[in-house]
Amino acid sequence: MSQETKVIMNYQYNTCDIIGRGFSSIVYKGINTSTKENVAIKVIKRQFSDQLPLIQNEIKILSKLQGRNILKFYEHFMSQNNIYIITEYCRQGDLAQKLKQLGYLKQESAVAIIRQIIDGIQVMAQQNIIHRDLKPQNILINEDGIKIADFGFAKPLNQLQNEMNVGTPLYMSPETIIKSQYNAKSDIWSLGVLFYEILFGRPPWQAQTEQELIFKMLNQRISFPDVPTVSESVKDFIKQCLIVDPYLRLGITELIKHPLIKKTTKKTEKFTRPTETESTDQTIKSEIPNNSEPWTYNNSNKKLVHVNCKNPQINAILNKYLNTKNNQVSNNKTNSKTQIQFDEIQLILQSQFSLCIFLNNIISKLRDFRLATPLLNEKCRIIFSKHLQSIKDKIYKQLIESDNKFKFKDWQLFCKENAYSRFSAKFILENNQFTKTCQEYNQMIKSNKSLIIEYQKYDSEFYQILFGLEWKVIKKIVRNLIIELNHLIAQNIDTSNLSNKISKQQQIEISLLQQSYYYFEIVDKYYLKEFDEKRFGQESKIQQQMIVKELRISDYLEIRQLIKRLMKL
């Protein structure tokens, strides 16, 4: 192979000293001719112009981050043909190479690595940055420790909008791979997968397709091989990282307080090939007393057995959802009477879940809508949020906490069905957004204490709603909302020509009017008397309200006719 020495400013490298390759780049071992220090020189050909935003993003992020477990950035240069990124040189390669060489690492070494990665994630969190591509290939190893590298996909959280999936599916969180949603806990899921792979030489789920991977993430509980043996605190840490609902998944601040991480590392561990007879179970075991460990392992039946958990919601998720049996199990033969009961359960749960989505949608539209009547917007958002909170809590208790709020017959049998697992997965993924919406409502109440006192004095009817859903009062307030919305829309839309186009903003306004009217009908028909979930599921057709379609002038005229009758009431 021909050799050629290249010089760029005060750095030089030999074209034979390749230490890494990417789609549009080659990484060389180089030297700073001024300091004689070894460096890594990433050379990107400028002909790959579509990669330029990622390159610029990586340079910007790396220049902001400074931490002992973040790859050290020195400087960058641009020539006519290439872009050069100069970083520290990590002599021992990356973690993927080590795992390929050794198979897996002993628990003591694995924990030392995870502690350092967490330190790097904490540095990113302080700058409000998420990595979005944590995997063994992007964890470099140097004499002084672990370095997180490759920040091409990293982004500040406040700049995440309508993101496309990036990274490697195997390490993506469920909300990312299914819904392209990123949050501060996306990297935590990747950390859990990474930790598992370091310990056992393979990821927690293996799949041939993305669809199969999604199904296994949502339906198969986390299981741990008998060999190599790991401590219960390690298992708990991984499970806390791999909670499907990001709202319940531990954040970086909570992970740092986990007993596994709180213990200080005495020295940087060397990489040695573990033997199958080695047991490191006692290495971390002493960090956490037995009575505070949330799980224990029952060797007789190879199932996780619940002992105790400080967080009841996490405990419920792990027991009732993550431990749900996979698709190999629930093909129980059911008689026709039982199947009718199952169909009824699904009908009721689905209609209530759809109502949650409907309420969340109407709240998001109303949030930015200006109304003339003082506090009408706030009142309606409080009403919809309280209703959403009530329904979502009832579904959550039914699915997760084994509290049969809906009084279903054959509920325990239904919990063994695939339908239970699928519905639980759908609800848990959406529940994070529902919870955020309800938190906004709670914050609105807390930050307006003086307003609450005013309600008590001058609006005693609405004041009742703060303590319970009074449906007669709600019907009156929503009626006022519909009338005002209709008045505002009528002022800005020309109905003389049915072929007139409706603007995007008018589409939103008319859609909000339709949904408000539909909600008024729901209250009038189902909630003023004792609410019947089965009747609601059979008659309401709420799922049709979820269908997004382009609205026309004729749609608006139709809803106006309904509102005219409403105004006569």
From TrEMBL:
Swiss-Prot/TrEMBL keywords: ATP-binding, Kinase, Nucleotide-binding, Transferase
Binding, ATP: 42
Domain Protein kinase: 13-261
PROSITE patterns for this protein: PROTEIN_KINASE_ATP, PROTEIN_KINASE_DOM, PROTEIN_KINASE_ST
UniProt xrefs under SMART domains: S_TKc (SM00220)
Family annotation (InterPro entries): Atg1-like, Prot_kinase_dom, Protein_kinase_ATP_BS, Ser/Thr_kinase_AS
Protein name per its UniProtKB record: Protein kinase domain-containing protein
Natural source organism: Paramecium sonneborni
